[in-house]
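GmrSD restriction endonucleases N-terminal domain-containing protein
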Amino acid sequence: MAKYSVHQHPIDTLLSWIKSGEIAIPEIQRPFVWSSSKVRDLMDSLYKGYPVGYIITWRNPDIRLKDGTLSAGKKVLIDGQQRITALTAAVVGQLVLDKDYKETNIRIAYNPTAKDDEPLFEVCNTAIERNPIWVNNIAPILNGDISISQARRAYMGLNPDANEDFIEDKLEQLKAIKNRQIGIIELDSSLDIDTVTEIFIRINQKGVVLSNADFVMSKIASDEQFGGNRLRKMIDYFCHLLKDGSFNKIIKQNDKNFADTEDYKKISWIADIKDDLYQPNYIDVLRVAYTCQFNRGKFSDLVALLSGRDFENRRNIQSIAEESYHKLRQGLEDFFNQTNYQRFLTIIQSAGFIDKKLISSKTSLNFAYALYLQLRASKMPEPQIQNLVKRWYVVSLLTGRYSGSSESAIERDSKQILEKGIEGYLAQIEQADLDDGFWNYRLVNELDSSSTVNNAYLCYLAAQCKSNEQSFLSGSLTVRSLIEQRGDVHHVFPKDYLAKNGFKKSEYNQVANYVYTEQAINIKLGNASPKVYMEKIQNDIKLDKNEITSLKSIEGLDLNLQTHCIPSNLNQLDADQYTEFLNERRKLMAQKIKEFYKGL
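Tokens:
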């Protein structure tokens, strides 16, 4: 089976296909990011007959309509949008969206009398408009708004000494740009997304990496029949507003039609939210909406469903496409709902994950949000929802549930929850994966790491934040406040001390050697061994000096060490006992995480 076909077509034919809708260009696949000078260079290359690369399209499968007839699938543009946008701007004269989503006009000027060392094309500006040797906009000539003879007469009127036959010949050469050939690679409609991605990567030499979500976005953006193009705009604008609330003004100025819609009202609230705990991009938004509504994990299936795929009978039916777009819209509106969004974040924060630096797995967060939306839709009591969502999120982190093939894991979990119910399935996971062997051995081994984005370590920090524990050797500042203030982690056994005693970086930078403490305390501890600095701290407390620590009693000191899972014999330890200290502290940290999970 041919995976794709390659054809050369005149630019005029390509543009006619775009006008007629035979090639569907996603409405705002992304703003036009080329500079005007790059548009000029494209025109120059076409004029001189240089190659300008390939356009890649992927034909949608034919779809069976309600009356039983077949409708031919459109070609969806998946690569070459910037070149096509440049052509429609320079050749057709259409306005393009700039990086601020504002419509702008790019005019390319042409100098028919240019010498070999002079530019034939330039981006039109005030100086060029005043200079009669330039045709200050090539679009009317290329798109047929004026004839060659009209253009010639207009030019001769401004340049009476020019050679009229020469100018006409040059204008004919300019118009011939429309007949230049451009390569179109059309990928077959029967190809699955993974194959399309592989072909794209091999053909595309720019190192661009596409995800399956990119194809979903192209698919929905090119759909007008069921409102996919409007969904795409909601997703794009929501993610943009989340990063930059001031973008709201740009939407109101440059997309007034959208700003007057209900869709705008559903997303615009995010512009005023400053919480950066969850920073979903378009892939995350799609993931949550898809998982929530379809109980599936593979984006390739979503593309098929939006094409109307009847998996059982291996054909495409319009009613399935319509239903799929309706379900996707419902999932997106649930995602964008302000109450849903903020209540979900409150749940995650109440579990101790109070800052984005404690969020290591976006996939776990996405699934937890999809689960929350499903449970809310089922009218389950809110306290019960909170308990189940917190437990699910933490168990998915502790077991590395989505660290491998996440789509397959999402699909499996979605099906199992649908079949067994969330409570039954979660209990099954806890019994199978969170047994004594996990808490006493496997989790302890997970903490044998130097990575501060280690899931087990992040759950340990979340446990400290949830309990609002004081930072190491401090009676005033909490771990939570230091994390929120972008405080740094410090070493129980100072790293310089360990380095001088022959330990490598990977050995002294262990999460079991990390604590959050005040910088002032850390400086006063210096590079001494725990045995030495603990004696200073005990004297500081006993003599009521408070020069090093704000702790008021030895009992308070003991409790502080205990909450930080520090072995009770810290005041006797030096470099010789460092490895033993790490082993013991990992066990204590694992038990703290166990208590944290059981208390969710």
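The chain has a mean pLDDT of 89.
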